[in-house]
Amino acid sequence: QVQLVESGGGLVQAGGSLRLSCAASGSIFSIDVMGWYRQAAGKQRELVAVIAIGGRINYADSVKGRFTISRDTAKNTVYLQMNILKPEDTAVYYCNARTVVPETLDHWGQGTQVTVSS
Fold it and tell me: What is the pLDDT of residues 101-111, one digit of tens each?
């Protein structure tokens, strides 16, 4: 099992910045990809940014150029730096870790609220 603890959400004005953190513990040796998803009220959960163990990164088109995902392998932590925030970025942000041993499983954090006021 993998446990994920998120922090860093909050309320910010449009144009502002926030940094989310996600610390992983447990069976971290089996993690293949970590990243962030978000779910706005009344909408489906969507990918924001993910980073693979090999370093490959994927961003949603809506956040490219504004958000940056990074990781600190020594701390088993993934970060999401969010700049130039827009009201449409308002959502609950969930940390995700995908493990591949012994089978492919998605693990989720508890979620952290990000609210961007106009």
Answer: 888 999 999 99
